[in-house]
Amino acid sequence: MATITLQQVEKKFGSAYAVQPMDLTIQDGEFVVLLGPSGCGKTTTLRMISGLEAVTSGKILLNGRDVTWLHPSERDIAFVFQFFALYPHLTARENVAFPLQAQSVPRDEVTKRVNEVLKLLQIEHLANSRPAALSGGDQQRIALARALVRRPSAFLMDEPLGALDAEFRETMRAEIKRLHLSINATTVYVTHDQVEAMAMSDRIVVMSAAVVQQVGTPAEVYYDPANLFVARFIGSPGMNLLKGRYSEGVVSFGGSKRLPVPAAWRAAVDQVTQGGGELIVGFRPEAASVRADGELEATVYASDLHGGFSMLHLDLGHENPIVHVRASRQEIYPIDALVRFSLDPNMVRFFDPRTEKALQPVAEVAL
Amino acid sequence: MTALTQAAPTQAKQRAQRRHMSDGALVRLFIFPTLIILILWNVFPLFYSLYLSFTRYSVIANRAPEWIGFSNYTAILSRPTFWQSFATTGVYALLSVGLQTVLGFSLAMLLRQKFKGSGFITTLTLIPMMLSPVVVGMFWKLIYNPSYGIFNFLLNPTNPRLATDMLANPVSAMLAVVIVDVWMWTPFVMLLCLSGLNAIPDYLYEAAAIDRASAWFQFRRITLPQVAPLLLIAVLFRTIEAIKAFDLMMGLTGGGPGKSTETVSIALYRLAFSGQFNTGQASALAYIVLIIIICISNVYIRYLNKLRGE
Ligand SMILES: Nc1ncnc2c1ncn2[C@@H]1O[C@H](COP(=O)(O)OP(=O)(O)OP(=O)(O)O)[C@@H](O)[C@H]1O
Ligand SMILES: [Mg+2]
Q: Is A40 in the pocket of ligand 1 (CB under 6 A)?
């Protein structure tokens, strides 16, 4: 088992950054997900940890041991590739046995351990098939088995479910999660699917444009995004972000649409806006509740029914973007109807429009 | 409107008139001449020679073929000189194909790494393969020449005449022919191996690095099995060619000294076109060679299919 530490690790291809200097410590037994849009450097980060890609600068520590310049084979890390990377000329069993045979493990031991892993993943019946004859899900199970059989100190997985169809992903996701819980090995998992990230991770590393945007638990990343990117990227739809003018404890969004700033945020907002100026207010759809005495007024732009609730898309007018609000499924909201809603003061967040960073409530800053 | 609807059928009719014949007829017209030539030059001789192999017949004797059953075959198989020519062919095939395989594969492994000018070097190495075997035989004869050839000069720079005369000594003559064949055809093996090697995806090696496989283990368990099908095809082609080897020996040694480089093909040529022009027996010998080649090919192909997955 292992802790993985990245210290100012960066990667450049030519003059372009694939990963800007990043610091990250992954605890023993932790399940960390690297999440971000395509091309943000997730795979590159993972490949640097594995040793398949050399770092441009920085240090990588495994259990405190500097492995920055060690070959992948000297790191005791297993890697599950996005497209499985199974050996096509070998049967499933031979694929799984490969890492053991490469280490000259005695034959009996190989057979025993391969059987154990095949049984664990319930793929004993596939043992003698070649990868080409198997479905994506089964290939992925074999790739997982090949990683597991070594009992490595850490697992790296690069979008292991990316090539599977939606239905299958759910099953495999549960399988991987279960595996993690049973063997409790340090795992770094790459995905661009936030649902996957939310469901599986202990911590999420949100990346964008080669930069780490935020590191935090799923709840932190969801409720307290560090900046506008994370606020927009996490959740579907993402956080509602309204630009308003702040003065004297109230943000106004044009016309009579105003929102009092909760007491905890006053000082921080005052400081950033220097008493008055532009401010971005963010809230999740579920932070709003539609009610007759709500402080904000809007017209219904559209509404759609989801399983247990309906999602209202509301137009605040005055060039504000459409906001998405969760509402009861029972009520019917005709298009263009006037509705009022209020926001839960505990779930409203504020962002500095210049730095795009989230403001911190004063109480926490004082700590 | 009416003008438009009429236009289409008129055009179609015009096109049909211009062509005068259907697609099928056109196809047959083009295939027919080739078919005739194939039948006259390939199919007919194939069966006619099979018939002749069971007869007593000589093209220069003004006598009709006389059916004698398997006598030609038994005659050939019971004569030691033919067994010797088979043995010579076997030694030659084994040596030259073996060396070509090892060298070709090694060269391919070297050229697999892309470096500055690797494309150019690859092209250069292919040149020997493009020359005519007769020409190659001629100039290697000059190279092997004991008094002014470069080969003996390299063997013994101070006094080339004292080095072995490659073509004059039974053992070295065989070696000399093998060297030339290897020089000429190693690039072919290399080319096939190279394309096999280049087709191996990088991610297999990445997976192997993660799986902690040593370089040797990767070579044995990934590189070799992945190239094996193409390597085997190269070996199959070269084996067939080696068994049929004729022009190179004729150009270099003429089968000599003695019978030391007389392969089956040369024996066959002698039987068919010198002395008594024994066409019947020559046909029988040709069929024996054919059967051997078919058997060997089958073994290879079986093995190839096994490699490609049960
Ligand atoms: N070998 C390479 N040479 C040059 N540029 C590269 C190389 N590998 C990656 N890049 C660039 O580095 C950036 C990050 O790539 P990376 O593969 O890490 O992204 P990713 O987050 O894994 O994206 P995806 O979700 O599409 O897999 C991309 O802009 C990519 O074009
Ligand atoms: Mg990727």
A: yes
